[in-house]
Amino acid sequence: QEKSSCLAAPLFGEACEISCDQLYELLKYAALGKCHNATQPSWCRIYHQSRLAGVVVIVLPEMSQLHFYKFYLQFRHLRRLFRHRFTLTPSANFLTSLYGPNVKPQNTAQGLTSTRSECISKSAESQRDPIIQKYGGKKRGLTSYILTLEEQKKNDYPVKGSSRCCGYVCTECNQQRTDSSPLFGLDCEMCLTAKGNEVTRVSLVDAQGRCLLNELVRPENPVVNYRTRFSGITREMLLPVKTRLSDIQARLKEMLPRDAVLVGHSLNNDLQALEMIHPSVIDTSLLFARSEGRRFRLKFLAKAVLGKEIQCEQKLGHDPAEDARAALELAQFFIEQGPAKVVAELNLEMLLTDENLAEVSQKRAALQPQGCRGQQQLNKPPHLSKPCFLECLQVTGQKPLLLGRQEPDSSGLCQSNLSTSNKQILQKALEDVPLSTFSIIQFSLGPENVSSHLLAELCEKVGNKLTDMLTIYAGPFEEGFCLKSVKKEFGRCGPIQSLTVLTDTYQPFVCIQYEVLEAAQLAVESLDGAEVAGSCIKVQRPVTAATLDCDVLIKELELDVENEGVIYVAGLKKSLTEKDLQEKFSQLKDLETLFLPKDLQSGKHRNCCFLKFQTSQSAVDALGVINGWTVVGSRLRSRKALASGHLRRWICQMNRSNRNQRRNVSYKDVQPLSDSDLKKKVQKLDHRIKKLYRSLQNNTLCVVLFPGVNSTYGSQSGLGLMGIKDDRRRSAC
């Protein structure tokens, strides 16, 4: 689409939660482009921003992700128009937060203007940063950042006593660590052999960046793939090499002091390949990790934090000495500056786009660790108060538009028609939006439909429905049947949350609750009528009022634009790595991405994955190929996907909150909620949004926001839907 703007949303499968600051970042860039210091948002990307015809934000106050999925079938147009969705952190003053930090919008006769206040040194947002939550804000010594034994186990580090580390060599560095203990950077390059990954090059650098070891290693087994593009290793390089892994192990044991601390980026991979155990490590991929364990690549951190270019495309493969030095300097930077300064100065979430990095390099130079060599010492530029992007719009002659209905708790943001209905707001929007390049339109269900006590009942209903959809009953079984066989067979459909044997019936049945919708549906489709544990069984969901429309809902979820070209695959053995799966599925035509869900607590991957294909037809073809495949003795099962990343995460949250509410909340004072009346209002709201969307010019960015709710009954995450209008396409790019 050479003449169209295009939107690239977060990576497939990721369940990221977007803050109001990040949403502000998107709107500012969409409205201003690279003028007025606006930069590409960190969590998505807008191509050809200069060709955008305008930006329209539709806000549905006091509504949340809960409302969207409760009335999923009623939001028929909304879910079909917008391909990109994201979870939104609820905000106490949502509309004000859209205008950026420390900005208070006001109304004037001429239009909407803003005033600025001084910046605050420490915001609530920084306090929620995962780095601050883990380490606090104060400077600490290096021992505070050494991984604990539990952290090493969780992140697959070789540890003493592990059955997987039989034959591994210990460095015998057993002396007590202090904040003065020496740091050493370590990095290895590996080639693929008949055994798996084997070390072919090892580099060790000291705290001053001096290279102490840079050695080629001859693998014990025949090389299958040299991976020259990444490792830099070729067959010719290894031909004269006589050094073996045992020689490197002996040299490292000899070189490392007894209180040495090893530093590396995902250092567990290097130690596993070296078959060595070292008790004290600092992992820079974990040190700078974001929420839900998201990690940055070493190349990105080196550029953003140190201002260094490593792993350049012009070079043949990676230089392990360069990588080891970069990891070491990153750790030194973090220790010397402290978590608070790292969070405040670097703002890592804002640095994810390459366009920002050149500017960032200059700003970071003043913060380089004293021990880093070759870093130019520059004075840090003074902080300048930047104007709100709505002010910048007015300076450039663009007039922002704000239309809405006044609520009892209104902050006076509405420019006009403060007491109008949704119908009148739509009519006004159809007239005025084409005249403005930036518009915020508020539609509301009315305070009587979004009150806290009704939210509580809504939450209970949705939670019960989700539980019923994740639950299946199977049986009857013979007395004394093998429960292990039943669990194994149903486990091949996906991760099981709970399994209960029901004995109140004439013959035993089992009740199984899955963690993902696809697993429950796959069990119903593939095991109903099958022979399991010696019995021909029936598999069905519980029959309740909530599940009567389950088949319709499943069908609509399959057709959801977010699930186009995506399939669910179950029956994977947990010993399989992502690399193993990539190799196995690489033969499938038009495969674009593989996503392997992980348990948020243990970090271990599930026995299922999601595959995204370039076209829906390629996904359908893949289903025919995969069903019946056997991988490492495990037979695979697959079907069309039902839930995207943000929906899977929300389902987990709803299951937890629903259990808590059942224990802690009494509903005796809650008035019955008339679903039929509310459904009609939602359908009208959906129709009005469709009408407004269809009136927009091509190349208009449209964002629909369910801001989320904070109430006495708990917090409900918000939801964002976005796309760039193009009549030549069904929805956004």
UniProtKB/TrEMBL annotation:
<feature type="domain" description="RRM">
    <location>
        <begin position="565"/>
        <end position="643"/>
    </location>
</feature>
<keyword id="KW-0694">RNA-binding</keyword>
<dbReference type="Pfam" id="PF00076">
    <property type="entry name" value="RRM_1"/>
</dbReference>
<dbReference type="Pfam" id="PF00929">
    <property type="entry name" value="RNase_T"/>
</dbReference>
<dbReference type="GO" id="GO:0004527">
    <property type="term" value="F:exonuclease activity"/>
</dbReference>
<dbReference type="InterPro" id="IPR047021">
    <property type="entry name" value="REXO1/3/4-like"/>
</dbReference>
<dbReference type="InterPro" id="IPR035979">
    <property type="entry name" value="RBD_domain_sf"/>
</dbReference>
<dbReference type="InterPro" id="IPR036397">
    <property type="entry name" value="RNaseH_sf"/>
</dbReference>
<dbReference type="GO" id="GO:0003723">
    <property type="term" value="F:RNA binding"/>
</dbReference>
<dbReference type="InterPro" id="IPR013520">
    <property type="entry name" value="Ribonucl_H"/>
</dbReference>
<dbReference type="InterPro" id="IPR012677">
    <property type="entry name" value="Nucleotide-bd_a/b_plait_sf"/>
</dbReference>
<keyword id="KW-0540">Nuclease</keyword>
<keyword id="KW-0269">Exonuclease</keyword>
<dbReference type="InterPro" id="IPR012337">
    <property type="entry name" value="RNaseH-like_sf"/>
</dbReference>
<dbReference type="InterPro" id="IPR000504">
    <property type="entry name" value="RRM_dom"/>
</dbReference>
<keyword id="KW-0378">Hydrolase</keyword>
<dbReference type="InterPro" id="IPR034922">
    <property type="entry name" value="REX1-like_exo"/>
</dbReference>
<protein>
    <submittedName>
        <fullName>REXO5 exonuclease</fullName>
    </submittedName>
</protein>
<feature type="domain" description="RRM">
    <location>
        <begin position="470"/>
        <end position="544"/>
    </location>
</feature>
<dbReference type="GO" id="GO:0005634">
    <property type="term" value="C:nucleus"/>
</dbReference>
